[in-house]
Design brief:
Shape: elongated
CATH topology of the largest domain: Rossmann fold
Helix content: 25-40%
Largest sheet: 5 strands, mixed
Number of strands: 9
Strand content: 15-25%
Radius of gyration: 26 Å
CATH superfamily of the largest domain: Vaccinia Virus protein VP39
Order of helices and strands: HEHEEEEEEEHHEHH
Distance between the termini: 62 Å
Structural class: alpha+beta
Length: about 220
């Protein structure tokens, strides 16, 4: 993983300098690179103003053997303008994505791997790549939509209002599920569950006492 702090941005600028006119780059950085003031903010602002950042994708925890923290996948693109190209035998009709950045939060998806790790299933991969590619295409109004707790297409103006922060949670909508909980219904449900649990515990205790009594080792409480 690249170094942290200002060195992150020096590393990013080095990548940008090596990209061709239509070059694309993807790399992983610690989440701290998404925000920060001073020199970091100045460079981040320039990257955004120059339309070099295409997407910011937050990955789940426990995806790597070397660290259990959540990290971020950055996508840079030197050419976010509308164009039509042939790629892998298919025609791609890219729309103009200048002054837009796609934010994705993948922390709630994935499947267990080797007990303590997380990996993406084939279905997860299709969902993520499909969303990304649909967002890039000319008919994205039909195939792409902002989805709470998953993705959001932010305009330059929105990012500017957020002080050029690239933290996805500042743009992606998150649902407060507590607001939709009926406290009385929830407590009644817990009351019923606990009643059944305590009844089962009492029955197990009685069964155990009966077994010891039949063996001639009666337990008196």
């Amino acid at each position: 993983m690249p170094p942290t702090g200002n060195a992150n941005y020096a590393w990013i600028l080095n990548i940008v300098s090596k990209l061709s006119e239509n070059g694309v780059a993807g790399f992983i950085l610690a989440n701290g690179a998404l925000s920060g003031n001073g020199t970091e903010k100045a460079i981040r602002k320039k990257l955004i103003e120059n339309n070099l950042i295409e997407a910011i994708v937050v990955l789940p925890q426990n995806m790597f053997y070397t660290t259990n923290i959540s990290v971020t996948l950055w996508f840079l693109n030197k050419n976010k303008k509308a164009r039509t190209i042939e790629q892998y035998g298919k025609i791609k009709n890219y729309r103009n994505r200048n002054r837009e950045i796609l934010f994705m939060d993948l922390r709630e998806i994935g499947v267990p791997f080797e007990k303590k790790y997380i990996q993406f299933s084939e279905e997860n991969i299709k969902q993520v790549t499909g969303t990304f590619h649909n967002w890039q295409q000319v008919d994205f109004e039909r195939t792409y939509k902002n989805t709470p707790e998953f993705c959001y297409s932010a305009s330059f103006e929105e990012i500017e209002k957020k002080d050029f922060s690239l933290v996805p949670s500042k743009y992606i909508e998150f649902i407060n599920r507590d607001e939709n909980i009926d406290f009385d219904d929830k407590m009644k449900s817990l009351q019923s569950e606990l009643t059944e649990l305590l009844k089962a515990e009492e029955q197990s205790k009685n069964d155990l006492l009966t077994v010891f009594k039949e063996l001639g080792y009666e337990i008196r409480l």
